[in-house]
């Protein structure tokens, strides 16, 4: 059999090589190549047509790509953010996501409602859609109509197992908020569900920046696309029963997402703030991403000094309404004649350092806060930090926002920052460098940039326009070609 097979193969091979058998072969080869070419051309035309007519829109509107965005982490199909920003500019306005496409689900409790509702009033707008989910009824007032979302009572979760000794079973109730909101079936044209705690302040206009593109911490806010919410609602109750030992609601959400096979992608604009104390170091070196939320307002100091937390957030709303995309975005520049380093966190604070410090150092948050366990353990943070300057000459001079306005004839914002003088004065410095202690105020000019986040992420540049003994004037804007932060 083996010999016969070899002879058969030899005959076929010889016949293909033989001149006497070669005449029909070129014709066969010709028609074969022609058929393959025609198929390739037809397939290519269909592929290009498909990509231009449906794929781009589906990425933006998330009809086919379920996406979950959780606090510092986002669940999504793997897409290139830069490419999506490019696509976004080409999508018709009617397909862009706005607040009208978003529904909020806020977790609260009757015990804390009277205090926490004041945080919600600061960012809630009457045209928004959303529900506050409580564990029991609370007293309502007619004069609060329109200043708060609708109130509802969460469903009974007593039949679910909960075995974590350090946690609280309310985590089960909170983890079901998105599913319960979806089950109401009263809202049309929903693309995203956003969930957060009642002690979270949202910069709602910046949510659209994320949602125009096609283990998590739930309190700072997470967002689930409508298709993913539907998939979650079908399996969540069964999933919750499989994880009775988990601590919080965010643990349970992530566990159920893992079962659905949806991966996580980090989103830095949601600030979980699992820290205590002063957030200055974190916010003054805000990452190059839109500020979306600030969480745990009850356990951190007000972001502006000598005021209450509510008053501090009201102060933040002034620049937020002028240019939400640029809020707290850091710029770094130098006062060359005096040898100073200047860090601008627009709409929040300015720091002036003696000497020349590298941008790499200044863009790293200084440790003005303690970790969640209230210890000075600097290995317990989920981000890089730098020590507070111990050299007395390197202690920064801080200027907080005092007021801001829009200059109509130039179409730019003008914000004023005044010197903060704490109880501990700056120590004497013997460096032969000009003393920033004489500066009382800094004025900053900046044009709102509607396309700031349509481009690849990059810090804005700042330029010192004038520097007098008691004041300084700075311009902040898009970096010019070849412009970098250098002395």
Automatic annotation (TrEMBL):
Keywords: Glycosyltransferase, Membrane, Transferase, Transmembrane, Transmembrane helix. InterPro entries: DUF604. Pfam families: DUF604. The chain crosses the membrane at residues 28-45. GO terms for molecular function: glycoprotein-N-acetylgalactosamine 3-beta-galactosyltransferase activity. Its EC number is 2.4.1.122. This is Galactosyltransferase. It comes from Handroanthus impetiginosus.
């Amino acid at each position: 059999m083996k010999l016969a097979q070899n002879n058969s193969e030899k005959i076929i091979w010889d016949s293909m090589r033989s001149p006497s058998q070669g005449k029909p072969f070129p014709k066969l080869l010709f028609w074969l190549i022609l058929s393959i070419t025609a198929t390739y051309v037809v397939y290519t035309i269909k592929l290009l047509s498909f990509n231009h007519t449906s794929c781009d829109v589906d990425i933006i509107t998330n009809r086919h790509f379920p996406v979950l965005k959780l606090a510092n982490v986002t669940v999504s199909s793997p897409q290139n953010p830069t490419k999506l920003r490019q696509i976004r500019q080409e999508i018709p306005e009617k397909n862009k996501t706005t607040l009208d496409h978003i529904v909020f689900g806020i977790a609260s409790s009757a015990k804390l409602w009277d205090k926490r509702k004041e945080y919600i009033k600061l960012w809630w707008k009457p045209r928004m859609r959303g529900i506050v989910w409580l564990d029991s009824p609370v007293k309502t007032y007619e004069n609060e109509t329109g200043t708060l979302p609708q109130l509802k009572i969460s469903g009974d979760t007593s039949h679910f197992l909960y075995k974590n000794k350090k946690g609280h079973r309310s985590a089960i109730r909170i983890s079901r908020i998105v599913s319960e909101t979806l089950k109401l079936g009263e809202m049309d044209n929903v693309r995203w569900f956003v969930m957060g705690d009642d002690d979270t302040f949202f910069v709602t206009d910046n949510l659209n920046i994320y949602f125009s593109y096609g283990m998590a911490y739930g309190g700072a806010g997470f967002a689930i696309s409508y298709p993913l919410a539907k998939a979650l609602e079908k399996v969540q109750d069964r999933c919750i029963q499989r994880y009775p030992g988990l601590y919080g609601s965010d643990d349970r959400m992530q566990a159920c997402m893992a079962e659905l096979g949806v991966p996580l992608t980090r989103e830095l604009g949601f600030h979980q703030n699992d820290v205590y104390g002063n957030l200055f170091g974190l916010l003054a070196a805000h990452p190059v991403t839109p500020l979306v939320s600030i969480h745990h307002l009850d356990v951190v100091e007000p972001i502006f000094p000598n005021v209450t937390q509510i008053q501090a957030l009201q102060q933040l709303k002034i620049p937020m309404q002028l240019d939400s995309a640029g809020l707290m975005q850091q710029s770094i520049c130098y006062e060359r004649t005096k040898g100073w380093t200047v860090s601008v966190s627009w709409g929040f604070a300015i720091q002036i350092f003696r000497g020349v410090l590298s941008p790499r150092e200044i863009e790293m948050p200084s440790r003005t806060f303690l970790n969640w366990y209230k210890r000075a353990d600097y290995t317990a943070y989920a981000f890089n930090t730098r020590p507070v300057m111990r050299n007395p000459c390197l202690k920064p001079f801080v200027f907080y926002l005092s007021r801001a306005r829009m200059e109509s004839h130039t179409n730019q914002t003008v914000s004023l920052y005044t010197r903060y003088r704490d109880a501990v004065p700056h120590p004497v410095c013997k460096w032969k460098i000009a003393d920033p202690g004489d500066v009382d105020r800094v004025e900053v000019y900046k044009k709102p940039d509607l396309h700031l986040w349509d481009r690849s992420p990059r810090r804005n540049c700042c330029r010192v326009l004038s520097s007098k003994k008691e004041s300084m004037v700075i311009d902040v804007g898009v970096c010019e070609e070849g412009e970098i932060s250098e002395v």
